[in-house]
Design a protein that fits this description.
Layout: E1 3-8, E2 14-20, E3 27-32, H1 40-51, E4 55-59, H2 75-86, H3 90-103, E5 108-114, H4 116-126, E6 133-137, E7 154-159, H5 167-176, E8 182-185, H6 202-219
Parallel strand pairs: 3-4, 3-5, 5-6, 6-7, 7-8
Antiparallel strand pairs: 1-2, 2-4
Length: 221
């Protein structure tokens, strides 16, 4: 449904991205990958947003470490993804999501991310004024920067039994950001929104997606 495009960040770095959706859409979304690259699942996520009428760009954030990375979900993939993530500087990541947003210039733009991307979406909200709304799904690094001030409305989603994100972290975020819509899905683990993972929960993924879409429809109007 979508296509690969090339972006250029402000520092001159060239990266690939997956783009989908109607070019004339009034609303755009920057979709941020997990630690597995812009793989089949992330392209499916992009296509699903495109079907809802959004113009979508998913920047390949691993291109700063290695181009063309698409991983699966086994233990070796997790280790590889963490190693690649560690090689991508935060400043470069922020430059790359801005390059993706620039590709959507002229639209009301939101940002949504999953896993590592959930944390990146939070940083997009707090360290940029580009986005009109942000949604993070199971972003493990949000707790460490929970006191930063969002520049746009933010919605967050967490699994109750996520071994990577203790509920104490989620409650710390809630305490630091009173009034922020934070949803906890009973019994759900990390990656509950990914249909290719053992932790996938169809019912929770459907509900979180509906909440995400409603949030963007309101805040990107």
């Amino acid at each position: 449904m979508g296509k690969l495009i090339e972006l250029e960040a402000a520092d001159g770095h060239h990266l690939s991205a997956y783009a989908a959706g109607p070019a004339r859409a009034d609303r755009g979304l920057v979709v941020i990958q997990e630690i597995f690259g812009v793989n089949r699942h992330m392209r499916h996520v992009c296509d699903s947003f495109a079907e809802e009428g959004f113009a979508v760009v998913a920047p390949a954030l691993f291109d700063r470490a290695e181009r063309g990375v698409e991983l699966g979900y086994g233990p070796e993939d997790i280790a590889r993804g963490r190693e690649l993530r560690a090689r991508v500087p935060e400043a470069g990541t922020l430059a790359d999501i801005q390059a993706a947003a620039d590709e959507l210039a002229g639209k009301r733009i939101g940002i949504v991310g999953y896993c590592w991307g959930g944390t990146v979406a939070w940083l997009g909200a707090t360290r940029s004024t580009t986005f009109a709304a942000a949604v993070g799904w199971y972003g493990g690094g949000i707790a460490a920067t929970r006191h930063e001030t969002p520049n746009c409305p933010v919605q967050l989603h967490f699994g109750e039994t996520d071994a990577s994100i203790p509920l104490d972290d989620v409650e710390a975020i809630r305490a630091a950001q009173p009034g922020l819509p934070i949803f906890i899905y009973p019994g759900a683990g990390h990656g509950f929104g990914c249909e290719e993972r053992a932790s996938y929960s169809a019912a929770d993924a459907k509900l979180a997606r509906a909440r995400t879409l409603d949030f963007f429809r309101v805040n990107l109007a």
